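[Meeting: bench + compute handoff]

Bench side (C.D.) handed over the final construct sequence. Compute side (W.E.) agreed to return the predicted structure before the next meeting so the bench team could plan truncations. Sequence as handed over:
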Amino acid sequence: MDIGKKIRALRLEKEVKQEELAEYLGVSVQAVSKWETQASAPDIALLPGIAVFFGITIDELFQLSDEAEFERIENMFWQERRIAPETFEHCARFLEGALKREPRNVRAYCCLAYLYNHRAHSDHETASEYAKKVLELDPEDKSGWVAYLEANNGVCGDEWYDNHFEVIEYFKEFLKKNPGNYRGLYAVIENLLKDGWYDEALPYIEQMRTVAGTHQYYVYMGDVMLGKGDLEKAISWWNAGVEHFPDRWQAYCDRADRFKKLGRYEEALADYERCFEMQEPPRISDGLYSMAQLHERLGDFEAAVRDRQRIIKCLREEYDTYSGESIDEQRREIERLKRRAGAAK
């Protein structure tokens, strides 16, 4: 970012006038104006004073362009397990500044949402470790039990805590304003089904059939049948989704998810493998994650290790990713699985 643009961005972020900066530095308002329009640049001797005025370091005056800063922040979500507090604050300031300059900047709002979700996720990881310590020391401690479930988005068994009422109501209103919106339909259907509101979900499922024209209509109809206790019809609907869309890898992945929950592990593993093989690079490795979990549940730790190694291979060869949290997470899981395999012998 050019120094003049940076000064202007900082000034707008701090909500100060050119006159205030000019008075502090002992220069004319016209000089500040010329810096901001890039007609001229401030004398190097003024840089420390500019940095002090805005409460930043001199290095921060010469930061990346806005585009590069956005890219750096977005990459951070996938590559960093923890974001340091000072880095978090810097990112938040940059994004909030971007919104002051451009109030309808969707990218900035999205980045802020991801930034706070990332911190919430890492905080929950930390909370989970503390809660596990509570349960190790006192298995009967209810507060530790509640804290662990909350940290891991677990089911408490209490309808007051476990329902998705607010999410459902939000997306109902969202769909009134954005009728036929695919993602809105997807969200309201998933949450209605999760809470067991099968009949209420049906009109939205019919809309999904028109809007998406994919296998999802069949998947959701199968989910309704399963919820109502008709397993045979449920499987028939899921199979129909694959039969009608045999070239869509998502159909196999969705059916695999259902087979996994029903304990039909071999069928699930076959579908997950098929959905991964069908994709064109760069492939989404969700199926490999699920395979690793299934193999671990079946006690086949060596197979689970191979699944994790395939994820690393995919990240390296198809996403050119050789380091960062996405790789480190798999390495941690591989070491954990090897320890479990050793303990099982």
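W.E. noted at the follow-up: The two ends are 58 Å apart (CA to CA). C.D. will use this when planning the next construct.
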